[in-house]
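To the wet lab folks,

You asked to see what we're planning to order before we commit. Fair enough. Below is the target structure as tokens, and below that is the sequence we designed to fit it. If anything looks off to you, flag it before the synthesis order goes out.
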């Protein structure tokens, strides 16, 4: 059997080390970029919606959003539809960081794809897409019949 999880884990950890250096100037960590991008793409999302969108536990969202709020990247306000929920909004600082995040991600992708032909890159992208869809299906508890 192919040991793909170990290799995916290595790539993910290496990406985290790379992003840590590149994000230093903004004062964000490598694991906060997904939260920032999500909030910028869907301003006003609840913390629960963010958790579902980026596939993390709600408690992680609360911690990371709290840290981002402390550093001026986001603000939170009660949800007008249900005041028990908080909606998260990006600040201008978040939008500036998002642009930097995009460039860092693009540079990482270019560097790790070096030496792969265009055809190999397309094949890899298609296989990873299928893998991600399968992973989401399993994580969400959806059955085989939904494939």
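Sequence we intend to order:
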């Amino acid at each position: 059997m192919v040991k793909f999880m170990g290799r995916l884990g290595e790539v993910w950890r290496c990406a985290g080390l790379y992003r840590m250096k590149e994000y230093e100037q903004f004062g964000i960590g490598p694991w906060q970029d997904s939260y920032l991008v999500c909030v910028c793409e869907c301003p006003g999302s609840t913390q629960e919606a963010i958790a579902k969108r980026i596939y993390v536990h709600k408690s992680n969202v609360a911690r990371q959003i709290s840290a981002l709020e402390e550093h001026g990247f986001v603000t939170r306000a009660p949800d007008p539809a249900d005041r028990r929920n908080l909606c998260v909004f990006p600040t201008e600082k978040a939008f500036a960081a998002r642009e930097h995040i995009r460039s860092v991600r693009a540079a990482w992708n270019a560097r790790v794809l070096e030496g792969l032909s265009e055809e190999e890159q397309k094949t890899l992208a298609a296989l990873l897409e299928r893998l991600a869809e399968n992973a989401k299906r399993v994580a969400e508890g959806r059955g085989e019949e939904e494939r």
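Structural context that might help your review: DSSP finds six helices and three strands in the chain. The chain has one domain: 27-137.

Thanks,
Computational group
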